[in-house]
Structures are given as structure tokens and as C-alpha cells.
């Protein structure tokens, strides 16, 4: 099957985006698995780009991950932030830390920790005032 977005088809295992054909891909899914692709499923079910009602979310995206193009790549607001990891791939910031982690992965974890710590502290302060 072909993905509707990919990295570059040279240094990864994905086809170039120019080769993606929704009709062909849908047919392949039906023949191979007996399932019909739902082109707009993620957008419809997860709200697409309507992120203005979210709070306290960190979207992290590793630029070595071919899925990053479908991610949130810019801050939406003060409590909905995007962290870009140039040398990272899928979930690298969520793995256990390692002394060989690149500097941008370490920085991403620190940014995430800073935001989450602040959100927890703010919630605790609101609860104390009740």
C-alpha cells in the first residue's frame, strides 16, 4: 500500500507522494483485507484542524518520521504547543532517556516536562482556592 504522505522515498521505506493514488490504495485495501478506506475518517473523528477548544496538549513531531506531515507543527495557543524534533522519529521523546540521545530530543523532553509541570501546578492552585 502507499501512504498519502511520505518523507522522501530515498532515505526511508515509503513511496514518493507523487505515486500515491487513493483509488488504487483503496482497491488494494479491499482486496488484501476486505476493508474500505475512509479518506476523511481521522479528520472527521478527531476534529481536523479545529484545535481551538483544546487545552494542555503538547504535540511532538520528529521530522524523521514520515507521519509528521500530518501532525500539528505550530503552536495553537499558550497551552497547546508544538515541539519539533529535527533528529527524531516516532515517539522518540517518549522513550526512556539515553546518554546517546541527540540534544534536540533532550530539549524536547525538557519543554514537554516544563509545560506539563506548569499545568499540574496551575490545576493544584485552582483546587486549593476552592
UniProtKB/TrEMBL annotation:
This protein's record includes keyword Kinase:
no
**GO biological process terms on file:** proteolysis
UniProt GO molecular function: dipeptidyl-peptidase activity; serine-type exopeptidase activity
Query: Key word Iron present in the record?
Result: no
| Alphabetical list of Gene3D superfamilies matching this protein | alpha/beta hydrolase (3.40.50.1820)
Which UniProt keywords are given for this protein, alphabetically ordered? Glycoprotein, Hydrolase, Protease, Signal
- InterPro entries for this protein: AB_hydrolase_fold, Peptidase_S28
Describe the family membership recorded for this protein in Swiss-Prot or TrEMBL.
Answer: Belongs to the peptidase S28 family.
Name of the molecule in the record: Prolylcarboxypeptidase
Amino acid at each position: 500500500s502507499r501512504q498519502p504522505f511520505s518523507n522522501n522515498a530515498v532515505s526511508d521505506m515509503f513511496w514518493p507522494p507523487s505515486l500515491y493514488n487513493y483509488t488504487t490504495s483503496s482497491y488494494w485495501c479491499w482486496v488484501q483485507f476486505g476493508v474500505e478506506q475512509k479518506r476523511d475518517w481521522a479528520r472527521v473523528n478527531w476534529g481536523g484542524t479545529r484545535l481551538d477548544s483544546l487545552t494542555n496538549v503538547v504535540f511532538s513531531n520528529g521530522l524523521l518520521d514520515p507521519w509528521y506531515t500530518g501532525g500539528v507543527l505550530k503552536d495553537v495557543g499558550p497551552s497547546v504547543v508544538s515541539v519539533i524534533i529535527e533528529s527524531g522519529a516516532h515517539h522518540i521523546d517518549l522513550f526512556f532517556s539515553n546518554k546517546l540521545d541527540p540534544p534536540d530530543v533532550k530539549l524536547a523532553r525538557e519543554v514537554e516536562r516544563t509545560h506539563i509541570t506548569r499545568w499540574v501546578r496551575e490545576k493544584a492552585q485552582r483546587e486549593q482556592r476552592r
